[in-house]
Amino acid sequence: MADAATISTTPSLSLPEELILVLLNEQNGYFHQVPGWDLNCAVVGAVLAELSLRSRIDTDTEALHLVDAAETGDPALDPILKEIADEPVRRNAQYWIERLVLHAEPVIELTLDRLVDLKILERHNGEFYTLVSSTFQASAPGGKREGTAGQFIKARIGQVILIDLIPDPRDIIIISLIDTCDVFRFIFELDEEAEERIGNICRMDLIGRSIAEAVKDNIANPLLRRSTLARQIPKVALHRLLRSPHLRTGNIPALFAETAERYGPVFQVCPPFKEPMTFIAGVEANRWAHRHGRMYLRARDYFADFEKIYGASGVLPSLDGTDHFRLRKALSPAYSRERLAGQLDQIYHHGRNYMAGWTVGDALPATRTCRRMINAQISSLAVGVESQDLFDDLMAYKERALTTHIIGALPRFMLRTPKMNRTAKAIDTLLQRVQGAHTPAQRAGCPRDLADDLLSLHASDPQLVPESNLRFALSAALIASVYLGDAFSFALYAMAAQPALQERIQSEADALFAGGDPDGEDLSTSAMDVTHRFLIECLRMYPIVPMSLRNVMNSCVVEGYELPVGSRIYIAQTAAHYMEDVFPDPFTFDIDRHLPPRSEYRSPGYAPYGLGTHRCLGNRWMDLQLAVNLLMVAHYFTLEVSPADYRLRFSPLPSLKPSRKLKFRVAEQRRELPV
After folding, report:
1. What does the buried/exposed string (b/e) look like for 635-655 if buried means 16 or more CB atoms within 10 Å of the residue's CB?
2. Is the domain covering 5-219 a CATH 2.40.30.10 domain?
3. What pTM did the predictor assign?
4. pLDDT digits 0-9 by tens, 421-462
5. In CATH terms, is domain 245-669 a member of 1.10.630.10?
6. 459-467 contacts at long range (C-beta below 8 A, 24 or more positions apart)
């Protein structure tokens, strides 16, 4: 949580900032749902009102007048002030609200950024926000009070509406703005007298009346405007995909990049005898999905059949909205870098035990070796039991389930074969082990793990985490070993294939381990600069999950293309990883591209962990565990790619991993592993 901010009184905030704070729904981390046109009118009205309070403009019943064209220094206000100053003809306030409505989105973004900088708001992954507790000086008796800026503003407004205090001009304007957005019903319990008073207050302010008129009289309905501007989505000829060299090598991100660069950011692939598949790809599509996807897209439709296989309903990947935010927030500590940093001794212990079986000259199968090494660590850290004997069955069942119920590449009866029925029993065995090991006596003195968190949440909130979901949630914790293990195998490949980089990583590893095992603070980005940038580049070139699936729940427009309700969207978020204008020379492994001033990974085009509300919750855990394991291997061994002439190919289903032919030859053991 950010440090508490100190604000003297809310007038130190601008009207757009006050409006945004009032609209934030503290229960779900986002904003009260306001129709787009209404919200945009209110935001522009807030800017005009703020300019009026700052004596830059004035209004009467006939026109809005420029008083002073001098810039305010506020980037949210000055572009609008300049546009008014450049207009040779005087116009009324309603004209300006309607004309400037396209400025609303950048005003909102600038306002949110400033509130975060002021530590009034805290931003979370997926564009969730929470209000930071603040100390403010109240104008009413009582002096300083604790709370959030939003609570203070609402309390001030409540005194005007409910206690019948005489409103000042600022209160009249903010009440008019909120009334336009129709969210008073979510903030206060209003009786008829209070509603009548709100109406009377709104009639006191000219700009407030103009906003209401702009909303009421607008004939260009946004939904109609959306459909008239929508373009025909380009259709990709299937034979073009089949001829792509990237499809033959299994490089799905590069295939999507090539297709998007030819057909545009939105395109459809039409498989025979199936519905067209709609893809969005590129930097702007990523930015839209990250910022606005939660308003228009949902995850539950594509994931529902998959979770049912485990007897579950409403697990984290399939939730949306308030429940998703609550569960994600509750589980955040379990997936945090801080928790892993506090248990690095387990990573070192299990990693060394696993590597103890490596002998110079061995050719280690890449995928199996890396997955099992990671699982040896994850099993202890996440669920507190040994699971290597179950891992192959858990992995086989999960990959078959994804291939049949998510990707649809196999008929569904393939999940009900005798072999799959046998592998499914591993899930129940795992659940029995975890429950047996997580009694109060068994866990006394043990560091908290994910299973502890899930079982506690089940006990305290059985609707949010019902018993029927534990089967999925606990086995999914180990399936994370698949994704992290495959990312590890790509990292070892990239290191073994580039001896000069391997030597630089070994130098960093030797320095870090010189005084014993490094702790979380030792493993800073500056102390492992080469390793850090190396892993960023690995995740760029070899993203494990190259795309995300969602269903459209509200009609929307992406890059000028309308996506109708009910359609399924494939968000190819990693296509930008191979786009020349985002990552120059994208097929070259170049860790220096992530140095300032280039810092290419900071682009919205870099999305190895997904986008928006469903962005990987454990991404910082994964970054640290990858780095620790890579450094451990580099400290003790030198690896080579086997066979020596191997050229990387991908196995893309159900997630991206190296082909089975890839092995690592142990070329040298640089030092003895401690017992």
Report:
1. bbbbbbbbeeebebebbbebb
2. no
3. 0.81
4. 999 999 999 999 999 999 999 999 999 999 999 999 999 999
5. yes
6. 464/323, 464/326, 464/327, 464/330, 465/327, 466/313, 466/314
